[in-house]
Amino acid sequence: MITITVKLFSTLRKCVPDYDxxxxxALDLPSGATVESVLGQxxxxxxxxxxxxxxxxxxxxxxxAPIGGTLHIFQPVAGG
Length: 80
Hints:
By secondary structure, the chain is mainly β.
């Protein structure tokens, strides 16, 4: 098992009931868990097309969740 922290931004915060933006969410995951599995566990739908970073690095859905790291999950922004 590994433990990570997840911080949600923008409207993605609504996907997790009682989300506390100060603390984020601590998750215990099986070793080798991917970013995609984290999103699934949190109930963030694929339609949101989240943008995930850890320590300033953009992660792909197939990347493994970083042991002890913090994932920052953003919803893409578009504008003009």
